[in-house]
Amino acid sequence: MSQNLNKTMNGTQSSNCYWNPTAEKIGKTIAYCLIVLVSLAGNTVIGIIVYKTKTMRKPINFLIVNMAMSDLLYPIFGLPRDIQLLYINSWLLGGSLGQALCKLVSFLPYVSLGVSIQSLVLIAVDRFGAVVFPLSSPLISSKLCPFFILTIWILVLAFFSPYLFAFKLVEDPGGLSCWLHWEEVFGESSSRYNYLVSIGMIFNLIPLVLIATLYITIYVKLKSQKIPGEQSANAGQQRQHRERNVLKMAIAIGLGFAACWLPYSIVLLHSVFVSDIWSCGFQYFSFFAFFMIRINCALNPCICFIFSRNYRIGLKTLFR
Question: Which of 27, 159, 238, 314 could bridge 49 with an S-S bond, Cβ 3.0-4.6 Å?
Fold first, then answer.
């Protein structure tokens, strides 16, 4: 089943399903190139803006930069491989170098996505503390922020390390291929099923529920806040504008996260518990699911520029 799932991940479709190979290659190539350009440009600019703007060197922005740097791993290591597979369905390098690249190119995109998701959780936690407990010490202070960032990377690297050992370069009749072999790590036991389910829980369901809960709590808190004294029309408008921005940010983060990850979670659980993964419906849905997680690396910088005035100002200053 691991080899079948690997083919599905790489976008290989069954000949029994209607699929235009030429249109698929052209469409995927254009889409992947756009994702690479937007991700590389957007995430790099995010880092430069925070580095050059002293007033933005705060925990919340450091977490956003951490998310941006993790998002760079996928367009650098993952998407070029995806584009190559559209035209050459074999591994180009052999030997020790090819084996190492097979593992890294397959392993680092998972790290990228895992770090990005956990960074989003910490960003939500930071905003929760700032709004709900404004007079208390920040939940993520400037001193603790580097510790949290380092912890994220260590935990994600450790958790996804089985992928580093499971991917292996093998020789097929058509040439070299980089396959996912869970037997190399878990053998024939049911541990791999528990591991895959835990990925869906820890890096999909739980973060989604936590982020949604935190931002809903933030919105409720802002909605119930009373502004003391006589309020001018301008002050009331500012309060309403702030509430709308918080609501938009909550919707953007929650829906963006869900849109990119829930389809993948469904595919993952389906591949674990259902033996037949070659139905046309599953293949079409898998294509959509894996395309959405590719979009994730380009989505986060777009959200930052859309909802943060400071980043928009920094962008304008950068190009003056």
Answer: 314
| Cα–Cα dist 40/151, whole Å | 25
Residue of 284, 280, 286, 294 lying closest to 266 (CA atoms): 286
Query: Which candidate, 31, 32, 69, places its Cα nearest to that of 51?
Result: 69
CA–CA separation, 302 and 79 (whole Å):
19
The answer to whether 38 and 302 have CB atoms below 8 angstroms apart is yes
Q: How far is CA 147 from CA 65, 136, 141, 152, in A?
A: 15, 20, 10, 9
Q: Are 218 and 129 in contact (CB under 8 A)?
A: no
User: Which helix (H) or strand (E) is 3 found in, with range?
Assistant: helix 2-9
> Residue 274 in 3-state DSSP?
coil
81, two tokens: 């491989």
Question: pLDDT (tens digit, 9 = 90+) per residue, 21-48?
Answer: 788 788 889 999 999 999 999 999 999 9
Contact 72, 38 (CB under 8 A): no
- The label of the residue with tokens 């291929």 reads 177
| The amino acid at 154 | I
DSSP 20: -
Q: Centre a 10 Å sphere on the Cβ of residue 156 and count the other Cβ atoms it contains.
A: 22
Using one digit for the tens of pLDDT, what is the confidence trace for 136-171? Answer: 888 888 888 999 999 999 999 999 998 888 888 887
Residue reference for tokens 């591994």: 91
Q: Are 34 and 48 in contact (CB under 8 A)?
A: no
Nearest to 156 by CA among 204, 105, 194, 110: 110
For 2-225+235-318, the fitting CATH number among 3.40.50.150, 1.20.1070.10, 1.10.10.410, 1.20.950.20 is: 1.20.1070.10
